[in-house]
Amino acid sequence: MSKLVENLRNIFKIEELRDRILFTIALLAVVRVGAHITLPGVDASLLAEVIRSQSQNSLFALYDLFAGGAFQNAAVFALGIMPYISAAIILQLLGAVVPYFRKLQQEGEEGRRKLEQYARQGTVLVAALQAWGVSIRLMNMTTPGGLPIVPEAVKGIGFIISTVFILTAGTIFIMWLGEQITERGIGNGISLIIFVGIIARFPNALLEEFQMIKTGSRSIIEELLIITGMVLVVALVILVTTGTRRIPVQYAKRVVGRRVYGGVTQYIPIRVNAAGVMPIIFAQSVMFLPSTIITFFPQSESLQEFAANFNYTSFWYSFIYALLVIFFTYLYTAIVFNPQDIADTMRKQGGFIPGIRPGKNTADFIDNILTKITLPGAIFLAVIAILPGFMIRLGVSPTMASFFGGTSLLIVVGVALDTLQQIETYLLMRHYDGFMKTGRIKSRVGY
């Protein structure tokens, strides 16, 4: 504990780092405030009543996860940063199939700037379309007693236009805040905005667990076992997230003038979980589609019966969900990691893998390792994805169970590690010990 306190003191001794952290906290506070300001024309009390009666097993719940609770509050930041993420993912996928975007991805800094500009423009379009859908949904929402959350006098084209304008402007403002955090703060701004939105749910999760102890439905020993299990799961996620397979690459010596280049051995780090959190997001989107569609047909008894039997705590839901996660892990890894490009780059730079011929043989060798190392990563992601549903069946509250795995845990761990690494870099640059004096965050410091 004394070491941690000393590191925290060291952080605030460095003026630049202190200013960056305080700037980041201030902007994240603005994001959280905007997540609780309800849109004009929406009755907040009736909206809360509707939220309590709705199922969390829908695409709206997944969207609300990234919006940090702003979506279910019908806040001015209801769309959160998701339109920007959607636009960025679309551009990334286009880079795999459209030569123009693929060329931009390979043009370095200039290509990155153009892609960022396209992402911003796409964000406006995606946000406007989603805001239009949100406005229609809000006008059609009623409480279990039949009261509309948007009064009849407010409904109409005026409400739609104002909602589209406010929500789109809110998304653009959040995108700008994220860019400011990245440039003038600490960590990746977009990721931190999502991170804070998820962490904001944790106090409510603890409160629900405390209420269960207070009412006698769970003992203190059982609660301690649950917390211990959560710590172990987080430790495993950190282990897999930072786990890599290093492929040695030898560079031949070259003499240019009086200088000698090359002649050293470097490594290509292939992550066990190269796809990150994206396979779970894609799989969740597919699995939530049926329940989302069913919410639009509340009068259909057969559909409601199907929804009751095919919920996220059932065996078949977990089985299909796990298979989808494994499938999307391989698919997304194949999109973001191209062994042929790596082999071509190595050959141009005079590098080679010892014992492997350059060119196609090198690409096949890397692809073989990638295929083998992706399998345990995919299985681990599948287990993490279905773990929250398993914990709910054991009696853990749904809010607390979400921190046992799934999208929430992977995002929290990934963002925390990246931010911690940036802070440690500042400390080491000023000759202070980092948070991990004897073992830094491997595979993130570099090789």
From TrEMBL:
Pfam families (UniProt xref): SecY (PF00344)
Keywords, sorted A to Z: Cell membrane, Membrane, Protein transport, Translocation, Transmembrane, Transmembrane helix, Transport
Ranges annotated as spanning the membrane: 21-39, 74-101, 122-139, 159-178, 185-204, 224-244, 276-296, 316-337, 373-394, 400-420
Keyword Nuclease: no
Cellular component, GO annotation: plasma membrane
Location (main, coarse): membrane
Cellular localisation: Cell membrane; Membrane
Family annotation (InterPro entries): SecY, SecY/SEC61-alpha, SecY_CS, SecY_dom_sf
SUPFAM superfamilies per the UniProt record, alphabetical: Preprotein translocase SecY subunit
General function of this protein: The central subunit of the protein translocation channel SecYEG. Consists of two halves formed by TMs 1-5 and 6-10. These two domains form a lateral gate at the front which open onto the bilayer between TMs 2 and 7, and are clamped together by SecE at the back. The channel is closed by both a pore ring composed of hydrophobic SecY resides and a short helix (helix 2A) on the extracellular side of the membrane which forms a plug. The plug probably moves laterally to allow the channel to open. The ring and the pore may move independently.
Family annotation (NCBIfam families): 3a0501s007
Protein family: Belongs to the SecY/SEC61-alpha family.
Subunit structure comment from the entry: Component of the Sec protein translocase complex. Heterotrimer consisting of SecY, SecE and SecG subunits. The heterotrimers can form oligomers, although 1 heterotrimer is thought to be able to translocate proteins. Interacts with the ribosome. Interacts with SecDF, and other proteins may be involved. Interacts with SecA.
Protein name per Swiss-Prot or TrEMBL: Protein translocase subunit SecY
Lineage: Bacteria, Pseudomonadati, Candidatus Kryptoniota, Candidatus Thermokryptus
